[in-house]
Structure formats: structure tokens, C-alpha cells
Amino acid sequence: MIQKELKQYLKEEILPIYEKNDWAHQTWHIYEVIERSLKLAKDQNVNLNMVYTIAIFHDIACHKGRENHEVNSSIFLKNDPNLKKWFTDSEIETMATAIIDHRASLEYPPRSIYGRIISTADRFTTLKGILRSTLLYSLEFYPELTVDNMFERSYEYIKKKYGPNGYSKIHMPSEDYDNFLKEVAYYLEHKQEMKKIFYGVYDFCCKIYHVKKTDQKFIKHYFSLDEFYQKKFGTKVYKVSLNAGFTCPNIQNGHGCIFCSNQSGDFAGDKEKDLVTQFNEGKEKIEKKCSNGQYIAYFQVASNTYSDVATLKEKYESVINLPGVVGISIATRSDCLNKEILDYLEKLNQKTFLTIELGLQSIHAKTLSFINRGHSLENFENAVKELQKRNIHVVAHIINGLPNETKEMMLETISYLNELKINGIKIHMLQILKGTPLEKYYQKNPFPLLTKEEFIDIVCDQLERLDKNIIIHRLTGDPKKEDLIAPNWVLKKFTVLNDIDKEFLLRHSYQGKLTS
């Protein structure tokens, strides 16, 4: 059995990095290699935690170039300090060596059983699998090719690697691989039959990856924040969460929102430290895992415009000129934006890329009253329009699963935001946290919470109706385990995101499908 904490760490912290890789080396490939690795290791005297970890890291650095990806992936593993929680230095060295040894074109055999396992597991075992991989690579990097030319490229690659004199080798007995080579040998001799299979794979990929056959460019299921930042800044951009020590008028005037733990931004910096120190510490954590990026300073905790302009200016402008900072994002409330603050934000927007995040949660008056939101929908709308007058990006937060809200009501919130023409959206699942008024209400009046399946269904329905130009900043939250009462499934953030992608694949759907 794989250690639970190790598995969770790898899935939540390492697997998401594969989003930077080419389409042929995304998580779908890693999951296949994991399955084959564990199957090969079944009868071997090996550490399954090491086998699993090697499989997850083996292609992690493909985005840095395929030429030396095995070396760079090995270095990435060795530089991950968190692995020392589960492995000795010797075991880490063995895993790093195995990753170097997995490449098919190496002239020497793997130096350990772990190298033999990953090297063998990394080989395809079905013709459709290798056709899919080569096709995805062509679609991403050679979109100017015709489909016939893409097939020729795939055919020559398969012949060179898996043909009679191919360079691909395995170092463990594998009936699946032996059968695959027989399959390849047959279709290399019957090229037109392979071409028919290729066209079937092509049609399949066009549907599930939303490739327009007219221009053969990828359309993702939704317009992600990562994609937006990449287009705007030409590089990967990371958000560093800060705690500027602000509070909230709704908390001061009463109990705050019913769901609020008074600790929004639990993963932000330490408010006892100055903002520059918080930023540098957050940046350092990111750089241990990722490099070559820019940064957004994210004022996340509480209502970050709930103060006078002089204080706001001092805090915001202490970080906007730090090395690597390309913008700031400010989370606040619509009732914390008077004219003086709005005019200052307009000036700030001329110095850096500014985003204002506003909590809406729902458009329905009964819901806003029940959750003790403390401001009206009209107040929210006026704030958005004032920000838009000043060309400031606006992101709205909404919550799915609020008590007494139906699916139709949640969809109505999306329709409203379309009309308001916001720039971005964060979609949260209602979480019942310890120490909140909602916890007390839930204990006295238990109400049904959305299941993971219901949440995913609603999110996909919402995205299908959401304007395709609205940026998706978040699709689920990630509370601390020790703070959560329910539902427990929200702790598996990466699983939820994967399942949203799977639902879109099953639907053959995408953001804006029902509005375009």
C-alpha cells in the first residue's frame, strides 16, 4: 500500500505541475505509467512508495525540453525537500537514478530494479495509445500540418522506435509489451489499416480536447487563470498570498457572514511580519518547486480596502515594485469601496496590473439575508460598474450549495454575472467550518450538502452557460483539514478538478457552449 500522506502530497503538489508539459506528457500519461509500474512491481521485492513516486516524477520536467527531460526530472525529484519525510537520502538517490534510466534511447540498461520498472512501464502497450501521444504532440507543435502529414509523422516515429530495428527496449518481462510489438509489426506492414485507426484517434481527440478541425488549435474546457496570465505576461505567473492585517465591517458590525471563520486566506502570510517579508517567504516556497515565473501579490485575508487611502497606499505600494511582481490582486467587499478609494485604485491600476476580487456568493435576496452578507445585490452591482469605469479587472466570488438554493438559482447567478460582464469568477463549494455560525446552525438544523457528483454537475452546467471570455480563477476551495466539519470530499481538491475535466470529456462540452 502507498502511504496516504505521500500519495496526497504527490497528487496535490506534484501532479498539477504536469499542466506545464506538452499535451502528450500530461497526467493521463502519468496515470497509465503508475498503473503499469505497480503491475510490474507486484512480484518484485521493492518499496512500492518508491515505485509510485518515481512514476509521478519521471516526466515532470518535460516542459523544460524533451532533450534532457530525464536528467531535469531527476534533479527536480532530488531538490524536493518534502520527500525526506518519507525517504532516506539513499532511497532518493536511487529514485533519481531510476528516472534518468527510464529513457528509451539510452544505450545502457537501467542500473536498478526501480529503473527497470519505470523504463518498462513507460513504454506504450497499445497502438491507439502511441497514436494518441504522437497525434497530440503534432496538434500542439505542428498545427500547420495536414492530418495526412500528421499520420506520416506518427508512422515514421512508431517505425523508428518500435519497428524491427527500433531503439525502444524493455528490461523486464511484459506480455502486454510483447503483444504490442506484434500489433505494431502487423500495422507497419498494413499502413492503410493503421491510417484508418489513426483517423479514429484523430476524431476522438478532436472531440475530447475540443480541437477545431478547421484550424487544429486546442480549445480548453474553460478559460483558466493560468492561460490568461500566460497570454498577458508570456510566462507562468504565481500568486503569493499576503495578510495585511485588515478586518471586515461585517465582522465589526455583527457576526460576519454565517460561513466565515474570520480566517479567510488560511494559507496566507503571517500578519505579524511585514508585507515584504511575507512576499519573499511565499516566493521562496514557490521557487523550491517551480522557477522562471512572475508573481501577483495577493491581498487575500479579510476586506483589503477597509481602511483609509493613506494606509492602503502604504501597504499596496510596498510590494508592487518588488522583483518579479507584475500585478496585485485585492480581495474585498463591495461596501468597502468609496469614491476616494476607487479613485486611488484607478491610479494604482496605472502603475501595475490590478485585480479587485469581490464576494457576491449569490444574487438571491433571501440567501444574502440568511448568510448575513451585510450588503445588497445593488451595492455589489454599483461597485462593479464603478470599477469597470476605471478599467479595473473585477473577479466575483460565488458559493454553490448554500442552504435552500436550488440548481436553477445557482445557474441564475451565472446568467446575472454574464450580463454584468465581469472579468473573472471564483466558484466555491459551501464548507462548514469549525467555530462559525453556520456550524451551530448545521448542528441544530442539518441540511443536505451537495455531494461531489452534484457539485461537479452544477459547475459544468454553470461553465457551459458562462461567457467564454470570463476567466476561471477557481473551481473549488481547499480548507484546512482540522477546520472542516463537512463535506469531507472538498479536501481532495485535485480529484475534484480532475473529475470536472472528466465530466466535460463525457459531455463533449466546454465553457460558453450554451451562450456562443
Please tell me about this protein's structure.
It contains 21 helices and nine strands. The radius of gyration is 25 Å and the shape is globular. Helix 15 links the parallel strand 3 and strand 4. The relative contact order is 0.07. It has 516 residues and is of the alpha/beta class. The longest helix is centred in the middle third of the chain and has 18 residues, at 191-208. The strands form two sheets. Strands 1-2-3-4-5-6-8 form a seven-stranded parallel sheet, sandwiched between helices. A two-stranded antiparallel ribbon has the order 7-9.
What key attributes describe this structure?
two-stranded antiparallel sheet, alpha/beta, 516 residues, 48% helix, seven-stranded parallel beta sheet
Summary, kept brief:
The protein is 48% helix and 10% strand.
Describe the secondary structure blueprint for this structure.
Layout (H helix, E strand, L loop, with lengths): L3 H11 L12 H15 L6 H10 L11 H10 L10 H12 L12 H9 L5 H15 L5 H16 L12 H15 L1 H18 L16 H9 L3 E6 L6 H5 L21 H15 L4 E6 L9 H8 L8 E8 L6 H11 L3 E9 L3 H6 L6 H13 L3 E8 L6 H14 L3 E6 L2 E2 L3 H8 L7 H14 L5 E4 L9 E3 L6 H15 L9
Parallel strand pairs: 1-2, 2-3, 3-4, 4-5, 5-6, 6-8
Antiparallel strand pairs: 7-9
Helix pairs in contact: 1-3, 2-3, 2-6, 3-5, 3-6, 4-5, 5-6, 7-8, 7-10, 8-9, 18-20, 20-21
CA radius of gyration: 25 Å
User: Uncertain spans, ≥5 residues at pLDDT below 50?
Assistant: 213-219
What value does the average pLDDT take? 89
Give the helices and strands as they follow along the chain. Answer: HHHHHHHHHHHEHHEHEHEHHEHEEHHEEH
Q: Estimate the strand proportion.
A: 5-15%
Number of helical stretches of at least 4 residues:
21
Strand order of the largest sheet: 1-2-3-4-5-6-8
Tell me the overall shape. globular
N- to C-terminal distance = 47 Å
Report the biggest beta sheet as strand number plus sense, adding barrel if it closes: 7 strands, parallel
Helix content: 40-55%
**Beta strand count:** 9
